[in-house]
Design goal:
This protein has 185 residues and is mainly alpha-helical. 84% of the residues lie in helices and 0% in strands. It contains 6 helices and no strands. It has helices at residues 3-32, 38-42, 47-56, 60-101, 109-142, 151-184.
Amino acid sequence: MKLKYSFFIFLLLTIIAFWMMRRHQFQFEAATGLKFNVMEFELPGSPEKLNELIETWGEPEQKAFVLKQLQLDYFFMSTLFPTIFILCLWARKNFQVLELKNHSPDRFTFPKNLLLILATLQVLALIFDISENIRLTQWIQQGFVGNMVLFETLVKMKFVFAAAGFLSALFFLGYEMVVSKKKRS
C-alpha cells in the first residue's frame, strides 16, 4: 500500500481516537461540572503536585474517568505516532523519487537521513507514552505517586519527538512540492 494512503488512513484513525477522548471528557465535565486537563497529569511539576492531583481526583467516579481517559489514550497513541512515522517516510520517499527523476543520487542525503531518524524517534515516543500511561495508571490506582525519575523528561521528549517529526515532514513535503514545480516549469 502506498505511504500516502497509509498516512491518510492512520490520520483518520487518529482523529477518531482524539474525538473519542474529547467526547468522553465533555460528557464527564457536563455531568460533574469538573474541568479535566490531561497536561496536569503529564507535566505536574513535582511529585507533591501530582500527589495532590491524584488526591483531588480520588473519588471513585473521578478516578474511573481518569483511568478511562488513559485507556482511550492507548488507542490515540497507537494511531498518532504511526501517523507521524508514515508521514516522515512518505516525505523521505519523495526525496528518493526526486533524486531518481533528476539523476542526482545523494542530492537529498541530509533530509532523507533526518526524516529516517525522525521516523525512528516516533517509535521511542510511543514507548515513552506507553510508559507514562502505565506509571500514571499505577499511581492513580494506588492513590499516590511512586518513583518519578525521568517521568517528566520522557513526557517532554515524547512531545518534542512528535512535534519535530510532524513539522519536519510537513516542511519537507512542502519543499518537495516547490522543487517539483520548478523542475516542471
